[in-house]
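Supplementary Methods, section 5.1.

A reviewer requested that the exact input to the structure prediction be made available. We therefore reproduce it here, unchanged from the version used in the analyses.
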Amino acid sequence: MASTPLGYRHLIQRYALPALPLDVEACVESGIKGRVRRQHGGQLRLLFEPKYQPGDTLEGHLQFALRYEGVNLKVLALLFDPAGGQSAEVRESLAHWLITSPESRYARRVGFLYEWLTGCHLPIRDPVSERAGYIPVLDTRHQFAREPGKKHARFRVIDNLPGTSAFCPLVRKTDYLQQMVAKDLQGLTGETLARYDEALLRRAASWLYLKETQSSFELEREKPSASKAQRFADLLSEADTGKPLTEERLLELQHAVLDPRFHEFTWRQRQNWLGDDLGYRQRVEFVPPRPEDVPALMQGLLTMAAQLRESGDLDAVIAATCIAFGFVFIHPFMDGNGRIHRYLVHDMLANAGFTPKGFVLPVSAVILASLNEYTDALEHFSRPLNERTGFYPEAPHVAATGNDAVYFRFPDMTRQAEFLYYALERTVTEDLRRELDFLLGFDRAKQALNELLDWPNHSVDLFVRVVHQNDGRLSAKKRQSYFEWLTDEEITRAEACVQRAFAADTGKQ
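The structure derived from this sequence is encoded token-by-token as follows.
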């Protein structure tokens, strides 16, 4: 079946742009009637019958792309690059489009995006009449945007892009993401917590801060000391205080998770890489941006974070995705990036009011239990970039190639947003209630056991834990190690207390 690329794919091929594989690709197929959407691996293919074929011009394919595929800042940045061989042709074509079609919604959006991305003016004065109505740059039917956005008079558009030209991830409105938004996880969190008394919630908050810390460290295959875990938990508890995200704040977080010998005091000055050292060779799986590009990328990320925290005009989970995953892809430190990345999820959610004040959702525990899905979300970005990147750890003085800043400035974070929504939904609808019910059952069990017997210091807590973990029974090994002083009858009665305490919320009493 004959297939002809349209929109962004056509422009990539026509101008030989060094673009990464597209998550959404459009083409004309002769056997198609109307329009068809097909999922092909990790790619969404938009198939059109021949009547949709646009004029074979730059303007025709740009208009088609904006109409059916949404805004792809990465492709547009490569296309509009003033240093590119196509620069003069593109600039003249866009100016001619605006002169001949000044009312065109698509010409105006493209004109704005050209100047926004390049910092260069098109050679045309007052391109749009003051009588023209304002139109949004991002079509909110296709992509998440800041609402209401900011008016831009030159092209009579509303700049509703979520970031700045230094850093601006975009997220498509997939069916799954729209379903997740409609679930109102923020409201569900509030409803869940409202079922429990405040004293229990205060205890739960302290416990969950430490659990989130331990799970985050475990994802890095590290068991932190009690003092290191407590330091990070304390910083995590400050996520909702509104402290600005700055280089200094991120360094403070890095210092909390690393041995003092490995502390850094500014963005990294060397090329880092992720992969395996096999002894006889290094297997490189991801090369973050070059060190000279990191300051501008991080300034863009921090500016975007500050604007979103102040305005709250983007979906909270989408905002958290952009900042947290943007950070880990830039990898601005030599070490500690993963734990700070997960901290940033909480920071953005807390300051957006998604998480109740003084509370934390145990998201890292869900990530730990969904490691394959988490890895897939990370590698959806890193794998195609790694295929075009060259770096040799054994020759670190030789600069990496292919890891250009443009790929980190304008990532499509749809896959990462879907994962974060998945993790949060499971956290809110399953794990949070399970954790709270465990604490409630623990309190009931301790009260019943203390009424049953006089227990040595701390032994009642240990008894509850080991019996609950062993499906309501005390194992022979644990009895021999810690509870030889209990009689058989006392053990039977104590086990029954624990069983009843934890069955109270399940109707199994």
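The chain has a mean pLDDT of 92. These observations are discussed further in the main text.
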